[in-house]
Automatic annotation (TrEMBL), chains A, B:
Source organism phylogeny: Bacteria, Pseudomonadati, Acidobacteriota, Terriglobia, Terriglobales
The protein's name: Putative transcriptional regulator
Leader sequence residues: none
Keyword Transcription regulation: yes
Keywords recorded for this protein, A-Z: DNA-binding, Transcription, Transcription regulation
Domain HTH hxlR-type: 22-120
Molecular function terms, GO-annotated: DNA binding
Pfam family, any one: HxlR
InterPro entries in the cross-refs: HTH_HxlR, WH-like_DNA-bd_sf, WH_DNA-bd_sf
Domain of life, per lineage: Bacteria
Amino acid sequence: MPWPKSTKTVRIRKGNLYAADCPTRIVLDDVTSRWGSLVIVLLLEQTYRFSELAYRIGGISEKMLAQTLRVLEEDGFVLREVFPTKPPRVEYSLTPFGQELAERVQYLTSWVENNVAKVMGNREKSRQMSA
Amino acid sequence: MPWPKSTKTVRIRKGNLYAADCPTRIVLDDVTSRWGSLVIVLLLEQTYRFSELAYRIGGISEKMLAQTLRVLEEDGFVLREVFPTKPPRVEYSLTPFGQELAERVQYLTSWVENNVAKVMGNREKSRQMSA
DNA sequence: CTGTATCCGCTATGATACTG
DNA sequence: CAGTATCATAGCGGATACAG
């Protein structure tokens, strides 16, 4: 059932996306997580503060926003800057590395945005077929 | 808390990705679901049978594969062809619409594959910082 | 303002067994 | 082969309260 390993010296140069233990999947999950992709694409616009992100991303809770941002920061996609003012102020932006990624994500999300109507139509047909 | 609606006649032409009720998010979740993106990119290679997909995508269960494929089919991304042989044989492929999507997804996944090592490195640093 | 800590329900997922 | 049905469970994610 596990994937047949081609050799013993399989390295993490370019992981096999289809192997159960491929680290690429882990990273991909960060990027395509429920809120991850939204945060990434939004930060492509400009730098935002925590509360601004919370406001703009409808439906997200503080907990999930903080958690999502922390993961993206650990991965090196997002830069977190703390300004020791009173009250504190934290700004989030994309690193150059994160910008590369974000452009790819946006390439996907924008396509979905532009084609969502057609998808919803396809779903309607499906529902009628089964009815 | 909800996004300020620009007008009352907001339609689903081009949804607002950041609105909680935006249908784009639903479709995006289908596409970026745990197994969705893997299936989509794999089908970009060629047509596959159910069992072939199950074999190639390490770690997926039959249940999740069937479920993922059904959603992608309803969305109009995947074509399901049943050959009434004995035993039955079902082939899955991308529709032209699905191919458009798949190319966008692959554009993302391939970047992640090529940069996963750097991400893992960034994570290491993060862990050391906090230690 | 920017989070963290805790509780907790719900859903997504996996394992298993079964059907056409 | 290609699924479906059922059950069990982990953990996602929301609500709330609290802290620096």
